[in-house]
Amino acid sequence: MTGPTFSSLARSTTLREQALLTLRAAITSGRYRPGDHLGEVEIAERLAVSRGTVREALRHLQQEGLVTAGARGMLRVSQLSPAEVRELFQVREALEGLAIRQIIESSPGPEALRALRDAVARLHAAVESGADLSTKVEADLAFHLMLCELSGNSVLLKTWRGLEGPIRVVVMSAAAERREVAMAASAHLPLVEAIERGDAAAAQGVLRAHMAAAVEQLGAADTGDDPAAL
Question: In angstroms, what CA-CA distances link 155 with 60, 99, 142, 171?
Answer without folding.
Answer: 21, 11, 18, 25
